[in-house]
């Protein structure tokens, strides 16, 4: 079954460009388009979508608010024990480390791409996100979080944080290394573990903390003060 993609951007020319690139892929199908967040939510009410390419700066409702609402609906469905494998959101931004893109990641997006991304990277990102991965390179994640760390609340020391209390000592160790920008392979080398074992730890961390992907894990690590406590 092809990956069903929705394009959300107020510039029709950009949507046309993305559509031309993606329609050439046998495993990707453009099923919907929208010019802003309001229209995107309306379309999603009647259209099955796997991945949303979401612009951030749009009229009526921007991509951050649209992402927040989309992810909130998915969270509500999961809490109600409804089988919901909702769409993943990939943010499109003009500038690397755009503060809007960061806000969208906090709202639940699975990553961000620059609008001038090479076609091969765009296609790979869509496939990765559909498979459950986050599309933000570990080094980019760290630069992004470091830049905006001042906007993250950190009122509780790590030992008093309920979220971190759910993790084993090893899982806390892995979470810290994720937040420092290390890949699974680098974490495995640092802790003298197999990469498969690290992948298992990452999966358990995401499950225990009810997070979508490692980007959300990085944000939580800073919010709870885990990373700052180590500085």
Draw up the topology in text.
Elements: E1 3-8, H1 12-22, E2 28-34, H2 37-44, E3 51-55, H3 63-79, E4 88-93, H4 99-107, E5 111-114, H5 119-130, H6 138-148, H7 162-165, H8 169-179, H9 184-191, H10 195-208, H11 214-223, H12 226-230
Parallel strand pairs: 1-2, 1-3, 3-4, 4-5
Helix pairs in contact: 2-3, 3-4, 8-10, 8-11, 9-10
Describe, in plain words, how this protein is organized in 3D:
The N and C termini lie far apart (47 Å). Strand 4, helix 4 and strand 5 form a beta-alpha-beta unit. This protein has a five-stranded parallel β-sheet with strand order 2-1-3-4-5, with helices on both faces. It is built from twelve helices and five strands. The protein has two domains: 132 residues, Rossmann fold; 83 residues, Response regulator (Rossmann fold), CATH 3.40.50.2300. 52% of the residues lie in helices and 12% in strands. With 231 residues, the protein is α/β, with parallel strands linked by helices. Helix 3 runs parallel beside helix 4, helix 8 crosses helix 10 and helix 8 packs across helix 11.
């Amino acid at each position: 079954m092809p990956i069903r993609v929705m394009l959300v951007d107020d510039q029709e020319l950009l949507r046309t460009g993305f559509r031309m690139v993606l329609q050439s892929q046998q495993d990707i199908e453009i099923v919907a388009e929208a010019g802003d967040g309001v229209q995107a939510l309306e379309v999603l009410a009647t259209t099955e979508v796997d991945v949303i390419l979401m612009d951030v700066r749009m009229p009526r409702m921007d991509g951050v608010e649209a992402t927040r609402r989309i992810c909130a609906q998915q969270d509500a469905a999961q809490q109600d024990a409804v089988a919901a494998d909702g769409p993943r959101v990939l943010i499109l931004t003009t500038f690397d480390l755009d503060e809007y893109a960061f806000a969208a990641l906090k709202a639940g997006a699975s990553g961000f791409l620059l609008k001038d991304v090479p076609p091969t990277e765009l296609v790979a990102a869509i496939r990765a996100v559909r498979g459950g991965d986050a599309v933000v390179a570990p080094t980019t994640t760290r630069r992004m979080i470091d830049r905006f760390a001042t906007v993250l609340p950190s009122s509780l020391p790590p030992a008093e944080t309920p979220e971190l209390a759910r993790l084993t000592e090893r899982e806390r160790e892995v979470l810290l290394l994720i937040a420092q920008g290390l890949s699974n392979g680098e974490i495995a080398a640092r802790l003298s573990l197999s990469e498969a074992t690290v992948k298992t730890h990452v999966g358990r961390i995401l499950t225990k903390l009810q997070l979508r992907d490692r980007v959300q894990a990085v944000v939580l690590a800073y919010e709870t003060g885990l990373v700052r406590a180590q500085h």
